[in-house]
Amino acid sequence: MEWKGRRQSTNVDDARGRKVVGTASIGVLLQMVGRLFGFKGILVLIGLGLVGWQLGLFDPATLLGGGQVKEVEYRATPEEEERLQFVAVVLADTEDVWGREFQRLGRQYQAPELVVFRDRYPSACGVGDARMGPFYCPADQKVYIDLSFYDSLEQEFDAPGDFAQAYVIAHEIGHHVQTLLGISDKVAAMRGKPDYNQYSVRLELQADYLAGVWAKNNQEYLDHGDIEEAMRAANQIGDDAIQSRTQGRITPHAFTHGTSQQRMRWFNKGLQSGRIDDGDTFGIPYESL
Questions:
Q1: 25 by DSSP, 3-state: which?
Q2: Would you say residue 49 has pLDDT above 60?
């Protein structure tokens, strides 16, 4: 991907010199357990938490946020500084693409802020943990990323390449687009219903589609092989691939993001279309996704 020397977004908050002290995020923990083990895993975690609380093994208040953010000395390596610049360029690209697309729809695009942090950092959705990877918080309309995730993307998920990294950001920005369009609120209202996971999958696949729309409208900066990098990343982070890698078996009822094939398919659909209009993952039977 050709990115050096291009415009960098000013909507980047470099929080690498700030550290959260004395808290963890129950929301992030539940999300991680739910992703790996499904709703039953969450119930088991809650049960163990109650037992631990009754036995005095830990204070649940430590999981509910409230930690302090302190300034700490931090000196980034040249490689990490280059990553920060890359992220800022990709964010600028999303601003340009979605600004034009929203204008076509007669709307105004409100660009999100991207927070670059280390280890853990508070958001309106709970304390973000680097182990969870990048995430979007609809409550404060910000994207959060620890740049070390890109090492995991290459080493653990075997998805190297700068455009694979760009795809990850474009997917999270896709969630911001869904928030602006009111789609995220409709899915959130389904939380607690038996088929909520299916709505979550539809939401995530649509974000993949929107990442494809971004790629379609950004092709002038793509190098040969860039699309293959994004497709490989989508393949490696499908629910079935992650479950097979982490628990040795696949449990479709616990899917929250879609299979590898689904994620690649919807990214490619967005790449072929280049328009928001063709990405309705909610209007077709679940089995047809």
A1: strand
A2: no
pTM: 0.84
Please check whether residue 137 lies inside any domain of the structure: yes
Residue of 246, 279, 284, 254 whose CA lies nearest to 265: 279
Beta-ladder partners of 116: 14, 145
* Spatial distance between the Cα atoms of 129 and 71, rounded to a whole number of angstroms: 18
For CA atoms 229, 160, 170, 234, the dihedral sign is positive
pLDDT in tens, 173-218: 999 999 999 999 999 999 989 999 999 999 999 999 999 999 999 9
**Cβ–Cβ under 8 Å, residues 31 and 84:** no
Residue 175, pLDDT score: 97
Read off the DSSP letter of residue 222: P
Domain assignment present for residue 150? The answer is yes
On whether residue 61 sits in a domain, the answer given is yes
The tokens describing 191, both together, are 């939380």
Q: What is the pLDDT of residue 7?
A: 96
Q: What is the pLDDT of residue 74?
A: 82
Establish if 3 belongs to a structural domain: no
The number of folded domains in the chain is 1
The model's pLDDT over 71-126, given as tens digits with 9 standing for 90+, comes to 777 888 999 999 999 999 999 999 999 999 999 999 999 999 999 999 889 999 88
Q: Nearest to residue 169, comparing CAs of 237, 242, 86?
A: 86
Are 176 and 134 in contact by the 8 Å Cβ rule? The answer is no
Domain extent, residue 66, equals: 12-288
